[in-house]
Design a protein that fits this description.
mainly alpha; two-stranded antiparallel ribbon; 2 strands; 81% helix; 3% strand
């Protein structure tokens, strides 16, 4: 019941394993951001600043809803990684069978609620009238594509749990290129406006998910489900919900803070909205390595806990820390020198020159302020996902609460007085506050697993 695509993370050098597993994930996330960015580039270049501001203003509500879906899928994959580490393939298949029913339920419910309430969501966010129609046309289609998004994230999560981080990358590359082509065709040829960008994203996600499904059916005999595996079993479903719901709630709670911040930004006008959109898109590329480190940490921790090797979890955290801190220093220099120039790819040069200049200046301030705090962001991802891989998803929710409070305070209390300057430091404040919770929570989770960190010349991990 083995497959050459599966990878065992429970033996070998943690540094080499983390790096080799992370790189395909990183490339996949870069391509995912690439086709998300293409929507923004095409909209900004060919439909104007107001269309760009409208699409960008949906980012926080998009994160709220899709973060819930993606978090649930990521949580569902952790028991699969643990069973793979235990070499309990019967239990692994039963988890996968129950995942199918639970994911179908959440996809239908979340899609129904968000598409019906989409207009109301944008109204609650104080979306300006001159950007409202653009925002609605785009985000409605993104919500309509939630089942496709969940399909891809669920299946790619299962594949990664079995140690294969490369295959999802190949499908993402294909769907990213497809998304670029569809964006250009729908917007420039068929003149579908921002709705064309939404349709391009929806169809690309669907094709990516179907490719994962076909690949799994052909190449992973260990996942061939029998009739009994597809029966809804409450003991397995409860474990999936215990892991998946807290992860989904964590993203959603974090997104609530982002929504409060976006509401405040919407009061500053289209230029500030466009600056945050352009700066945010560049930043999303810059932070891809931290997201890849987090996803790697969850799988690495899950497999090693399943194999009864929690000491390797801490070794993996140290290896990831070295990689992440090094990258943080490098990317700070890059964004300081060229961050403002990078945001110009989202802007139409035929727009008002003074407005374009303001947007570039504001987005550069946003990027540098965030990059100064990328090391705290590294540990938000690394520790939070490690805690989840250790089996304590409920604790990771606390980090989301801290992030929500920080962004909420900046959005509701500081932006009205300090303007865009407060917007620039809202994310850094959220990351620092989350780390205040995550560091002690991480060491507490290690201790609960029967291990503790002691100082004896250097940090080592020994049995308690």
């Amino acid at each position: 019941m083995s497959n050459r695509s599966m990878r065992d993370l429970t033996t070998g050098s943690p540094m080499k394993l983390v790096l080799s597993f992370m790189l395909p994930l990183l490339l996949g996330m870069v391509f995912q951001q690439f086709y998300n960015m293409v929507d923004t580039v095409v909209v900004g270049k060919f439909l104007g600043v107001k269309a760009l501001a409208g699409v960008g203003s949906t980012g926080s509500i998009n994160f709220l809803v899709l973060g819930l879906c993606n978090g649930i899928c990521a949580g569902f994959a952790i028991p699969v990684a643990q069973k793979f580490g235990q070499r309990d393939f019967d239990g692994l298949r039963k988890f996968v069978g129950n995942m199918i029913w639970l994911s179908l339920f959440f996809a239908v419910v979340i899609t129904g609620i968000t598409t019906v309430q989409c207009r109301q969501f944008l109204t609650w966010m104080n979306t300006p009238e001159d950007t409202f129609s653009y925002a609605y046309s785009y985000i409605f289609l993104i919500f309509l594509g939630i089942p496709a998004t969940m399909l891809y994230n669920l299946l790619s999560g299962i594949i990664r749990s079995l140690g294969d981080s490369r295959t999802p990358l190949y499908f993402l590359i294909f769907s990213s290129l497809l998304n670029v082509a569809l964006d250009l065709i729908f917007i420039l040829v068929f003149h579908m406006g921002v709705a064309g960008a939404g349709w391009a994203t929806l169809l690309s996600q669907l094709i990516s998910g179907l490719l994962c499904l076909g690949y799994m059916a052909k190449n992973f005999p260990v996942l061939k489900l029998a009739k009994e595996d597809l029966k809804l079993d409450w003991s397995y479903a409860r474990r999936l919900l215990v892991m998946g719901l807290p992860m989904g709630m964590q993203y959603s709670i974090t997104a609530i803070g982002s929504i409060l911040l976006q509401i405040a930004v919407n009061t500053l006008g289209a230029s500030a909205m466009a600056a945050m959109t352009a700066g945010g898109k560049v930043s999303m590329f810059a932070v891809c390595p931290f997201d890849a480190i987090g996803s790697t940490a969850a799988t690495f921790a899950g497999q090693n806990i399943g194999a009864g090797k929690p000491e390797r979890v801490h070794q993996g955290v140290r290896a990831a820390s070295i990689l992440g801190v090094t990258y943080s220093i490098v990317i700070l220099g890059v964004l300081t020198l060229w961050g403002g120039n990078l945001t110009t790819i989202f802007l139409d040069p035929s727009e008002n020159a003074a407005e374009i200049g303001t947007i570039i200046q504001l987005s550069r301030r946003f990027l540098i302020a965030n990059a100064l705090f990328y090391i705290p962001l590294l540990y938000v991802n690394l520790l939070r996902f490690t805690i989840q891989g250790l089996g304590f998803s409920n604790l990771a929710v606390g980090a989301g609460v801290f992030e929500m409070v920080a962004r909420g305070v900046f959005g509701l209390c500081l932006v009205p007085f300090f303007g865009f300057g407060a917007v620039c430091f809202a994310n850094p404040a959220a990351w620092v506050m989350a780390d205040v919770f995550l560091f002690p929570a991480y060491y507490a989770c290690l201790k609960k697993r029967g291990y503790q960190v002691r100082c004896a010349g250097k940090r080592i991990l020994r049995r308690a």
